[in-house]
Amino acid sequence: MKCTEFLDELTNYLDGVIDAKTKAELEDHLAWCHNCYVVCDTTRKTIEIYRNQELYELPNDLRGRLQTAIMSKCTAHKKSGPEKV
Amino acid sequence: MSAIQPNIQQPAPVSEEMELVRRAKRGDDSAFEELVRRYDRNVFRIAQHITQNREDAEDVVQDAFLKAYGNLAQFQEQSKFYTWLVRIAVNEALMRLRRRRPERTVSLDEDVKTEDDSLPREVADWSPNPEQMYNQSELREILTRTIQGLPPGFRTVFVLRDVEGLSTEETAQALELSIPAVKSRLLRARLQLRERLSRFFQKRANGGGDKSSGDGDQ
Q1: Global ipTM
Q2: A residues 43-82 near B, CB within 8 Å?
Q3: Residue range B127-150: average pLDDT?
Q4: Which range marks the domain in which residue B41 is found?
Q5: Which residues contact B28 (CB under 8 A, 6 or more apart)?
Q6: Which residue among A40, A57, B47, B83 has the highest number of C-beta atoms inside a 10 angstrom radius?
């Protein structure tokens, strides 16, 4: 397996949606190709760090205001009839 | 090396969610309000990632839920409500992004440089724990600016798949893209983010996290 072929399968490999034969070939490649090992490992860490560090949390006060605004607009919409929103 | 297991909060089981949708369709606003409470944080995150603007994200949250409310009768229940809602929110967010940046074409279909833009160049290993190299606000700043540098089409796929935990199929449905298109964009988004983060997180010669270097072109 070449490095470019490894890269093509990287997303499937990281997502665990890959058949056993291809997985074995990828892991064989990883065992000797240090660059692909590093790319694979750091790509996995990239995904994990974005998952762990939740950017753009909705603050509670803003959340409350948005919920109130949404529901009052929904109520107004219901009263005014089914015209397009 | 093992596959990544999603560790994020998953949307509620379909049957329970669908029950709320059906009650909302029958006019029960408290059921719709429950749907708002379930997904407003997700919609806000997605909207802010796409628009990169807090006010726009707030407007997207309101407009997306209002649109969902107004069109609930048209929701066919062939997908999860959440996927349908995300589709509405993404469209609203892209519309606002286009409005704010009329000089640039903003489309999920844009095909950004097909050659080599995602091929790894930085292959140095990262420090054992990059999250300890920077304090919390520095780290969030790095992550925010790095993901903001991705084209909107890549950013959106990455956020839906990897941050919000939608499946490839759900992402394809939400973005009206084919599954191969989602996979291709996801791979390139992941590799480009990895490449850019490597400038901050790679091992230093002294083995530590030298904050004074590695800020690249961010």
Answers
A1: 0.89
A2: 43-58, 62-63, 66-67, 69-71, 73-75, 77-78, 82
A3: 90
A4: 14-100
A5: none
A6: B47
